[in-house]
Structures are given as structure tokens and as C-alpha cells.
Design a protein that fits this description.
194 residues; mainly alpha; 10 helices
């Protein structure tokens, strides 16, 4: 792993443990990675650049970790939906504090220099998930599990249910079982879509 990636991973780990914050010093970050402060400046020109790079790396690794599309192709609608939801819940649970970065309010807290790039990355994740769940619903329609005449409004409601459930599950105050959440969401979407 490159020194640059070690720096970014240390910052991401700090965000995971302590929540997103920008009130660290370059010296504190250098101590975390066990390098000199001047070495940080070999890789990044300032603190904002490090923060932006860490968020982008986190977002990209999150996309990679939830992209299991090749595993889902041969599965039926129910199994594919549940497997993808399980992966989303586990990733969210493992990154409870960093999950803050997926909220629109978070982007407003960022320095202006990074808002657009982060918004673009976040939109990429939303689009990927929309496409993924759309493909599930098409599969569900082909299998006769979901009525062919399902309207777009119901699709938005299901998407909101899934996203809201991910945020609820990732809240450490809620002691929810992955299996229970997956079962209840699946049952709820079948009711909504019929």
C-alpha cells in the first residue's frame, strides 16, 4: 500500500471511530500515520485536499464493496434483492460514522472547493443503486412476483424504504438483526408493489 493510501486510510479510520471532523491538525494526522508532517505535504497541498481525497476514496471503496452484480445474475428476484440488501446493510453497519457522508446535509458542511466533486460522487452511488434495484424489479416483473403495471411512484417509495432502512440499521442505538431487517423490508416491498 502506498504512503498516500496509508494517510487516507488513517483519516477514514479516524472518521469511522470519531465521526467526520475537520478540526484535526496536520501534525495529529502525521502522528496517526507515524510520519513527519512535512511528508504529508509531499502528497497533499493542504488539509482540505486530504479530507476530499479521503472522502472520495471512501465513496469509491463503498461502491466497490456493494457492487456484487456478477453474483446476482443467476439468482431469482427474492434472493438477488435480499443478497444485495444484506451487503448494503453490512457495509453501512461497518461504516456507521462515515455514513454521515452520504447525507445531503453533510455536503453543505464541506469547504466550497470540494462540494461539487463529492456531490458528483454521491450522485454516482445513488444512480448505481437506482439502476441495481431497477434491474431487480424488472427481474421481479419477469418472474411474476411484481405486477407489470407497477407505477414509478411505488418504485420511489420502495427506494425510500430501502435507503431509510439502511440508515436506521446503521444507527448503533438500534439493535436490529440483519436477517430480520431483510425479511421485513422484502415483505413490505411486496405489499407496496402489489
Amino acid at each position: 500500500m502506498s504512503r498516500r493510501d496509508q494517510i487516507l486510510d488513517a483519516l477514514i479510520e479516524t472518521f469511522n471511530k470519531e465521526g467526520f471532523k475537520t478540526d484535526f491538525t496536520m501534525s495529529e494526522l502525521a502522528d496517526c500515520v507515524d510520519i513527519g508532517k512535512s511528508t504529508l505535504y509531499e502528497y497533499f497541498s493542504n488539509k482540505d485536499e486530504i479530507i476530499k481525497a479521503a472522502i472520495v476514496k471512501y465513496v469509491e471503496s463503498s461502491i466497490d464493496s456493494v457492487d456484487i452484480s456478477s453474483e446476482l445474475v443467476a439468482l431469482n428476484f427474492e434472493d438477488a434483492f435480499k443478497k444485495q440488501l444484506e451487503v448494503l446493510l453490512i457495509v453501512a453497519s461497518d461504516s456507521r460514522s462515515v455514513l454521515e457522508t452520504l447525507t445531503s446535509g453533510f455536503i453543505q458542511k464541506l469547504p466550497e472547493s470540494m462540494k461539487e466533486e463529492i456531490k458528483t460522487k454521491m450522485e454516482g452511488i445513488r444512480q448505481l443503486m437506482f439502476e441495481r434495484f431497477s434491474s431487480f424489479f424488472i427481474k421481479g416483473m419477469q418472474e411474476g412476483v411484481i405486477p407489470l403495471e407497477t407505477d414509478l411512484t411505488k418504485g420511489y417509495i420502495v427506494t425510500s424504504l430501502v435507503v431509510g432502512s439502511i440508515f436506521t440499521f446503521s444507527d448503533s442505538r438500534n439493535k436490529l438483526s440483519v436477517d430480520t431487517v431483510i425479511h421485513e423490508i422484502y415483505e413490505a416491498i411486496l405489499k407496496i408493489l402489489h
